[in-house]
Amino acid sequence: MSNTKDTENINELLQIRRNKLNELRELGVEPYGIDRFERTNNTFDIKKMYEQFEGKVVTIAGRIMSKRGHGKASFADLQDREGRIQLYFKLDIVGNKNYEIFKLLDIGDIIGVTGEVFKSKTGEITLRVQDFKLLSKSLQILPEKWHGLKDPDLRYRQRYTDLIINPDVKEIFLKRTAIIKAIREFLDNKGFIEVETPMLHTVAGGAAARPFITHHNALDIDMYLRIALELHLKRLIVGGLEKVYEMGRVFRNEGMDIRHNPEFTLLEVYEAYTDYYGMMELTENLFAYVVEKVNGNTKIIYQGTEIDLTPPWRRLSMIDAIKEYLNIDFDKVNTDEEAVEIAKKQHLEVREGMKKGDIIALVFDELVESHLLQPTFVIDYPVEISPLAKRKHDNPALTSRFEAFIYGREVANAFSELNDPIDQKERFIEQLKQREAGDEEAHMMDEDFINALEVGLPPTGGLGIGIDRLIMFMTDAYSIRDVILFPTMKPRIEQSEAED
């Protein structure tokens, strides 16, 4: 019953706004008729440098966020991208007609105003409005208190409303822009070249992930939205560009949670004549540079935990990490069968055909990585889960690979790139066997990439960083959806459809 009453009240308020739209037109005001409005200043500058603006006439524009007062004088708050400022409307200054127009304005309407900067009796910096124009009439009702909304995911579905109402959200995305700019600045200063590679691939490669499939009508072939940037970027290293990076969207047709969105931003960096130790140094220095540039120091607070990103970061092998936190020593495990028994004793789900290296990775992922709160490089990954990484010379069962962890979450993945075309082809063949056995995330065969390796890939270090997770840490965001402007959402079922 109460829901029906609420709906009736909302519909009545929406109708009142449409009635005002007609009243404004009767007064000769076209609510969407102005194409351009020139501003001289913004709210932040006026408030920050009040002494310079006091008594001066300025022109600003923005959205009405509150209205108060009655009779011959009224106040309103105007919000632009930089902040809010109080407006003072007085009948004998703006005139009878304009004051009538002002009374027809609603919270959410967008206006442009010209007025004199002064301080009110309460000391608040205010604009004494001399003239104003309605730039856009809002026909929807802005929520008075955002956190009072009943639907918790409406913020993500209607990000435009979220940005209007919640200043903290706007700050997150302004900081996101600053972070991305700082990343580019760091890499550009080190001589890396930013490049762009295809989003549509004929072979889904570069990561263990299930791709989105689409169809190219002109070529009459299925194609894949890219799951990684790696294989094209390494082709460019073969071509002699030597230091390249790309930051862009990748797509993985997988589950969604607080750390995963099917569409996300990935940075991949490749440098010739270095290895995974060079990539470690690059990673820790990049993180420290970006955090200090944007936040002012190399320490952050994430979900109540202080994290120190100052280089150098801790380094330990995956096998040593398991030994440290679980007291299990896989160096003493000789067979796949022994490894499987260890996993079962830890109550882990073991898939058919898993080898010792797969089990090591499973135990680490499920039972160890959550302990790594401070920045940590976990190095020397099993070859079974690293089909694109170079083997270690002193232990061919392991690869020269690392993942970086912060707050128990992977934030970077890197390795000394495999440049042996024969070994690479054998690993692709092994991956194909896993696909045939039902593993949809196993790598596909990429014959052209093998050809590129046969042309010759120099010793190369490669690095991938999840940009959204980095931004989560720097903005203390709990969910990845809080740092993506328009996260992937299931369409809402309208009430009428649900009833059908």
Automatic annotation (TrEMBL):
The keyword Ligase applies. CDD domains: LysRS_core (cd00775), LysRS_N (cd04322). Its main location: cytoplasm. It comes from the Bacteria. Mg(2+) 2 binds at residue 410. GO terms for molecular function: ATP binding; catalytic activity, acting on a protein; lysine-tRNA ligase activity; magnesium ion binding; transferase activity; tRNA binding. SUPFAM superfamilies: Class II aaRS and biotin synthetases (SSF55681), Nucleic acid-binding proteins (SSF50249). InterPro entries: Aa-tRNA-synt_II (IPR004364), aa-tRNA-synth_II (IPR006195), aa-tRNA-synth_II/BPL/LPL (IPR045864), Lys-tRNA-ligase_II (IPR002313), Lys-tRNA-ligase_II_bac/euk (IPR034762), Lys-tRNA-ligase_II_N (IPR044136), Lys-tRNA-synth_II_C (IPR018149), NA-bd_OB-fold (IPR012340). Its cofactor is Mg(2+). One of its GO terms (biological process) is lysyl-tRNA aminoacylation. Binds 3 Mg(2+) ions per subunit. Its EC number is 6.1.1.6. Keywords: Aminoacyl-tRNA synthetase, ATP-binding, Cytoplasm, Ligase, Magnesium, Metal-binding, Nucleotide-binding, Protein biosynthesis. It catalyses: tRNA(Lys) + L-lysine + ATP = L-lysyl-tRNA(Lys) + AMP + diphosphate. PANTHER family: LYSINE--TRNA LIGASE, CHLOROPLASTIC_MITOCHONDRIAL, LYSYL-TRNA SYNTHETASE. Homodimer. This is Lysine--tRNA ligase. It comes from Aceticella autotrophica. The lineage of its organism: Bacteria, Bacillati, Bacillota, Clostridia, Thermoanaerobacterales.
